[in-house]
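Sample intake sheet
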Amino acid sequence: TKAVPDDLKKIFAGVRRNFEAELAGFDGKNDHVHPPAVCQPKMAVSSLINNLKGVSSGLTGKKGYPSIQKF
């Protein structure tokens, strides 16, 4: 379904606002996404990525999508 990528796009948009980054596009499927972002030079890219991964993992886990497997 398209629900997972659509929800992730909304989640990523919220996270990028907190990091003063710009979401430069978004593409993906149920098992992976490509969220290119433009960041401020003062910000560590690894901080943005870690936050995106943590927030998206927690929120998608709470929604219990059947297409996402738990390991």
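Comment: Strands lie at 22-23, 27-29, 32-34, 37-38. The first strand starts at residue 22 and ends at 23.
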